[in-house]
Each structure stands twice: as structure tokens, then as C-alpha cells.
Amino acid sequence: MTARTDSIPATPTPFTVGIVLDPGGPLPPDTAPALRFDRAYWAGLVHAAEGGGYDQVLFAGSSAGAAPGLDPVLLASALAPAAERIALVPEVITGVLEPFHLAAAVQTLDHLSRGRAGWLVRPGPAGAGGVREDIEDASETIAASRLLFDSWEEDAEIRDVATGRYIDRDRVHRVDYRGSRFTILGPSYVPRSPQGSPPLFIRVPALSDAEAAGRLARAERDFALEYADTIILDATSGAHPEHTLRALREAGATRIVIEVVPPSGPEAVSALAERALRWHRDGVTGILLRPTILPGGPADLDTRLLAELWGLGLPPTHGRSTPSLRALLGLQPARNAFAEARLAKVGTHGE
């Protein structure tokens, strides 16, 4: 067992910092409502976040009481070509878009962002079966989407004009997914994207001991533990995340980021930076800031916390060579189940 120390390791894992923007969230007072539908407004925020040192922008899905807003996946796709370094992670609500088309949309975003896309899955919307049924539906959606991501092998495209061959049919696969809610034959109509399988984020709330013991809380936590590449621990309600963080770590979670409301004054910024340092020592790999009101423009995007974090010695990601979001998060390159099966079959026949 490694002894705990109060110092940051000599070769630490980068500590990512992201911002969560809700297309349907409230705008500052006296702001024109049409601003939320202005592409230049969103592009300005993304460029300001990128220039200020943020590693990723998450676009939140619609929530109760939110104003009508732009679709997070389509918004991220519109902004991706102009972004140079920052990762773009839209929230998708399962049960709204068919899994086949959802997978294609995520793959498209990964192509447009040149391998800097992720997706945040939220089970829902709550139907007659309630939250448990939503989680089951989300589980099937993720499983089917990941098969669709793999349905084109990396070298499936030939594009040989001389022979008239566009693809190698042996490297494009039907997924034949049969779940309890839907069936997908496949393959995807989008070729394999740069990351193969864009990183998946799932959010869980910070809970007290009593709340965490409930069956529903355990179901949400188990869902995240099984499917997420990175778990977002939501502490925006003001609840202390330490208990849930400890439970997730004990259950085997290795990549956890904590989501909080941005601090307001200089003292609050310093206090949050100190807490982030303690979280990092407890295995947290990043922090997300979720403002309650959308910035009025690029100049209103606060970057004070990043300077505080770096000043305390937390390892920044800027300046590192991170060609993909998977690399930024420390994930291994995505495997392809169909390619592995094909190669295994070829190897067996060759013996």
C-alpha cells in the first residue's frame, strides 16, 4: 500500500479544468433573449475558454424550467471546426434520439473536432417505468452505440479510384444488436472516428450517507461505474462530495471530476483552489465549473481559478501534446471488438 503524502507526485496526472454551459440556462439581466441562438456568441465563449486554459467545454442538456435552447450535440458540432485545442462534450438524454442516430452524431462530432469529442449521457426522460427503466434504456443505448463506433475498422476505407473500390467489406461490420427496447442491424453510416470510441461521461450527485444508501442512488452509482470513462461528481447543490468520492474510489472508479458552482470573490476562488488540491490528493482528476447564469460574452468568462490551481502546483495540461480527449484523460487508445475478432479468426485459420 502506497503511503499518502501531502506533496504532489513528481510526474502527476494532469488535472483538467472544464466549464459547463447550458444552452437553455438564464442569461444576464438586460440581455437579448436571441443571444442564446447566436453562433458567434457561443464561438466567442469557446475561444475564450480555450485561450484562458480550460481543457473542455460541456454543453448541458435541457432541464426542467430551462428556456428553449440549442441542441448540445449540434451546437458542439457547429463550433468544433474552429476550436484548436479544447475538447467539446455535449450532454445527451437517452430515450429522445434513436441510438443509431445518436451514435452517428457523436462520431460526426469526433470527426469535426479532430478527436476532441466526448459525450455525457443522462438517462431519461423519466417515463412510466421511472428512473430505473431510464437507466436500463441508457445502458442499452451505450452498449449499442459502442458497437456502432466499432462497426467500421480503422482501415476500412480504401478509396482506390483505379480499382473502383471504396471500402473493404471485410472491415465493415453489422452490429446485430438486440436489446429489450430496440434492435440495430448496422453498420453505422459514419466511418470510424479519430478516437474510435469518444470518452463517455456520466454524472452522479454528491449524497449524504443516508441518501447514498438508497436503492436508486446505488443504481445510479453502479450505472456510472460500469459504463463511464469519467464520472462527474455533481456538487453544485452545495453538498460536500467527500463521502460519495470515497465510495466511488472504493468501488474502483479511477477518473472522477467534481462539478461545482464557480466561486464569486477572490477569497472564494482561493478556498476552492485549496479544496481542489485536497481532492487531487484523494484521486480526483479534474474540476468542472457550472455557472448558474450564462456569461454575457467572452470577456465575462472567469479564468481566475485556473491561475490559482497552477499556482498551488496542480499539474496543468496546457503545453502538453494531447492529440485527443482520450489522451488528455489518460485513456488507452480504443480497442475495436470487430477487428480483434476478425484478426483472431484469421490467426486461427492460419495455424
From TrEMBL:
Signal peptide range: none
Keywords per UniProt: Flavoprotein, FMN, Monooxygenase, Oxidoreductase
Any one Gene Ontology molecular-function term assigned to this protein's record: monooxygenase activity
Acyltransferase among keywords: no
Residues in Luciferase-like domain copies: 33-281
Domain of life: Bacteria
Entry-linked InterPro entries: Diverse_substr_monoxygenases (IPR051260), Luciferase-like_dom (IPR011251), Luciferase-like_sf (IPR036661)
A Pfam cross-reference name: Bac_luciferase
Protein name from the UniProt record: LLM class flavin-dependent oxidoreductase
